[in-house]
Amino acid sequence: MIARAQNKKHTDAELMEMLAKGDMDPLGEIYLRYGGAVRSLLWRLLPGRLASDAEDLCQEIFMTVYETADRFQLNREIRPWIFGITVRKARGFRRKNWVRENLLRRHAGEGISEVLPATANPDSVGATRHQINRAIAQLPRVQREVLVLYVAQNMSGEQISEILGVRINTVWTRLRRARLAMREALCNPVGDKNTGEVT
Amino acid sequence: MRGCSNLEDYLVEKLERKSKAEFQAHIGQCSKCREEVSDWSVLKEQISDWASVRKLPEPSPGEAASLVVSLRPRTARPLWRQPVFYGGLAAACLATFVVVFLMNTPVHENGAGTSREDNRVTRIVQEPELPETPVEQSPIRVLYSLEGELPSSKGTSARQLSVPGEGRLLLGVGSDHVAVGAHSKIEVLKAEADETRIKLLDGSVAAEVEPRDGRGSFAVEARSFIAKVVGTRFMVSMLPDSRIQVAVDKGRVEVVEPDETVHAVSEGQVLEFGKKSPWSYSPLAAENRLELNGLLSATEMDEQAIAAEEGTESEEPSDRSEQNSKRSARKREENRGSQSFEEFAPARQAMDMNAVRTLILEGRYAQAEAALGIHLKAAPDDVAGWSLLATCLRKSGKWRGAVTAYRQVIEKGKPQVANAARFDAAVLLQDKLGKHSAAGSLLKEYLEGPLLLEAEALLRLARARMQSGRKDEARRLLRQIVEHHRSTSAAIRAARLLNEMAE
Known about the structure:
heterodimer, A: 199 residues, 10 helices, globular, disordered N terminus, disordered C terminus, B: alpha+beta, eight-stranded antiparallel β-sheet, seven-stranded mixed β-sheet, 18 helices, 18% strand, flat
């Protein structure tokens, strides 16, 4: 009897249907299927943050999955839907830190401009992971989201459009700007650019 | 130039086959487009490489269960978390034992037939009737015994095992492990390669069952109910008021009522039931999990007991010889099969870290510390355990202990884990203990390893150097932060410090 229960693999839609009816058990299975991807996406959307921040936020995301399961359309794919929640949670997290970061940045703008040398690394091909991390952190939030989803998460333009709730042409525009901004940042790592830390 | 206008569409693979071929032909002639395509390709590779590093591990089934339990809206306080429970349990067990003993006496003492209730159980699971004679050459091995009463070689009692006092009994049944708790008694009804059937007569029994892959079965009977499992980790207990509790840590258990009604108990759930009481589900509490793991794991005490029995050297001081002599009353089955203590060692690592994490999250640091202490004595190389202990001690304000635990992580952990511990230890040394020199050494090591908080570490190192009077080095470090980590908040603090130093 138990063997039957264990061997039966529920589809995502079945799990979401059970969740929508108030049964919390399927949440564990959904977490097993998508928890890793969600945590990784969070960490990538929050460059400069610790992995533990992503871990903490992850719980909130799956709580939201449970709370809003009844609004999930069963004919849709679950991954873009969960990623949409993830992106919104990441924005919320950054918003909470907005005041502190903004104040510090303003102070930096006044205090350190004279001590900043114009060091540059013209060799974009040889950019290290560290430089990539810094360049992604400097991107405006909307560009970073599209770039991470497209390149790091291998999502299609249509899926990104669904996740972010924007038109597909907006996705391509943001991706183009992100590409140009990344190239600029990697060629001129300390250029006077919008750091993108504030959303 | 018409070809150049297709560049963006080509980069995001939006072009149809014909247009794509045309653009590829165009690339051969247009160096600008060729460069753009090449740059994008390199950038994608670099970002993919960055993403491969910035990847967090997939969650384990234990984590998933823990998530469900922690998110499940908390209802009434579970019975086992009420203070009166443990006090009342001992008295209730005694009463239950008497009742159960009387109920089962006709079956187990004469062995000549089955009661009406047992007939019903047999019919439910559609399996052959129980053998009337004791199982010979049983595959049961007694792995550890603390105050356990082991089966004699004669009569039906050969199948009964009990722990009358505050001990426990750990059995190997085939490839499975069964632990009998304090004040508990079980009877092994069947122990064969494809079927194990245990009857809980009193107290509690925990089991860790190898996955059966649909072949064979493992069942625990409690009164007229059957907890049937295929690959799981669970515990069945008899509660006061004739109720039975089934707690599942891993896998899934099905409880079969006499009328064939089946109740599923999932991972991280506890089911309580009785003939005349409502069936209630609740989440598996941290204490439950610790108790289950405690029953099933082999502790240092067990190791010492075995060493004493085997006549090997004991590190215990002589004033504890009395305790040892008490323990020597414990018997160990002569023929334990081929399984040795070392082979069973992985069970020592079986402590559920999620249960300890829950204790820490709930602010019950003393309990978490005690549990980790026992675990780390048995498994001193468990980096995750040391890391949790460090967190627990840090949260409870025991800075020195936390630093010591972090040093264990540094010594035993993988590079990235060890480096994170270096940073955390340095923070405590610097902020809480005022040991700037020691903090500086750790930070310097941190900056040489795989790191995440380069700017933060540099800033702390600069402060440590300032405290040690090495102002030139501090100034150099601060400038380094300002130059290379401009987008971080550390750069702002570094700039402030530079200004202060200049004044």
